[in-house]
Amino acid sequence: MARLNTFHLPTDQWPARVGDVVRLTGPEARHMGTILRTEKAQTVRLFDGQGRDGLFSVRDIAKNRAELEALELAEHPAPAGGLTLAIGWGKSKRRDYLLEKVVELQGRGVIFWQAIRSQGALPEDPKATWNEKFIQAAKQCGVVRLPELDTVSGGVDGLLAMAGEFDRCYLAWEAEEATTPLSPGMLSKGRTLVVIGPEGGFDPVEADKLIHAGFGPVTLGPSILRWETAAVYCLSLAMFGAQDRS
Amino acid sequence: MARLNTFHLPTDQWPARVGDVVRLTGPEARHMGTILRTEKAQTVRLFDGQGRDGLFSVRDIAKNRAELEALELAEHPAPAGGLTLAIGWGKSKRRDYLLEKVVELQGRGVIFWQAIRSQGALPEDPKATWNEKFIQAAKQCGVVRLPELDTVSGGVDGLLAMAGEFDRCYLAWEAEEATTPLSPGMLSKGRTLVVIGPEGGFDPVEADKLIHAGFGPVTLGPSILRWETAAVYCLSLAMFGAQDRS
């Protein structure tokens, strides 16, 4: 049902059963009414970004609000595994693109970390605009679950403190010492964390610390990839790994 | 030597031997002199985009021209295989991004084709600005060979006429009938062509024709990928396939 027009309804407003009526307000209601000119009795798809989606019938619609009745409701189980990327913070205008691709390529999560070569200071908490990017991307590509979003302070030490949450941890290292290619097989089972440096790369001290702590150094290939391309490359291998049955 | 500042010198001006002197003019010379403030006696890297690169010493430099002496010259053999993407034409502002990623992820070539659902008319010949995008991307990522760039008229029939140049041809099809995932193994040997639809997807007539002609229908996964994400996904699997020794 992904080809129907899709709108986001927050989890705390999600209906308990078919026949329940919900209200859409704010930008999502404007998108439905003003931009897509949705009409009474049309069927649309709503999702909550936490694994729930459903078909709804428009009962009433105005410029800034809509009333919808649940016709069909589905709940999709959380995947056991998936790829989380820990990405060195940067002020790059390529960040929006990166956030969009994490959703499309079904990443499990994104953690921004403050690297020695990061440009600018990492915000203490994820920004609402980042989550908004996720929502818009999910509406487009039909994904039911938004990636987890986090920021971690304390540089590499902050990352090491999180390592226990993952089954495997890797470091995408641009140095010649990294000769093992990251592979879909490394990303296909359980929870995996891949750490990517900021634009400008890891400081040697950071790479050393991670490798000593057991993060496996891997290469992404012979090309010098841009920040967001490194992320998209990892996500592509993981999405392939998740569907590979060979 | 990829971390040195890199500039593009066209093939017809490439020096025959070490000690020869070449001249850089136009935007590349301005980039060298005005933006990067390169000075006399500095060493830089030049490449021709056709597999040649080398180290050069700056003998003389002004705002719009530079004179350089060849210190070391290398010629990299053309790869036997590689992935060529045939992408349904679109006027999307995401095209520049796509061209950049083809270089970074070491695609062999890009062919734009006029699909039934293409928005706008495909230019008869590749535009100089597209090649310029390739050059700028290659300067950044250190790739020595620019992808081949072509446009093909006649819709799907134009593509079928080119199929003989490839060892294997696939169709990245968003329909449920496509259940075989595109895999790195399909892309790791010989010359492979993957056809991607325009934004809006293939018309069923186009998919039918390609499949009947022997193009293998493959899925890129469960997500509805944007135009340029589909391309980047295929390129990522191909770049992994080319380095996989397992």
From TrEMBL, chains A, B:
S-adenosyl-L-methionine in keyword set: yes
Lineage: superkingdom: Bacteria
One Pfam family in the UniProt entry: Methyltrans_RNA
Membrane-spanning intervals of the chain: none
InterPro entries associated with the record: Alpha/beta_knot_MTases, PUA-like_sf, RsmE, RsmE_MTase_dom, RsmE_PUA-like, tRNA_m1G_MTases_N
Cell compartment(s), UniProt: Cytoplasm
CDD domains, per database record: RsmE-like
Alphabetic keyword roster: Cytoplasm, Methyltransferase, rRNA processing, S-adenosyl-L-methionine, Transferase
Location of the Ribosomal RNA small subunit methyltransferase E methyltransferase domain: 83-238
Main localization, broad class: cytoplasm
Entry EC number(s): 2.1.1.193
Domain Ribosomal RNA small subunit methyltransferase E PUA-like: from-to ranges: 24-69
Catalytic activity: uridine(1498) in 16S rRNA + S-adenosyl-L-methionine = N(3)-methyluridine(1498) in 16S rRNA + S-adenosyl-L-homocysteine + H(+)
Keyword Plastid appears in the UniProt entry: no
Family to which this protein belongs: Belongs to the RNA methyltransferase RsmE family.
Function: Specifically methylates the N3 position of the uracil ring of uridine 1498 (m3U1498) in 16S rRNA. Acts on the fully assembled 30S ribosomal subunit.
NCBIfam families in UniProt: RsmE family RNA methyltransferase
Protein name as it appears in the record: Ribosomal RNA small subunit methyltransferase E
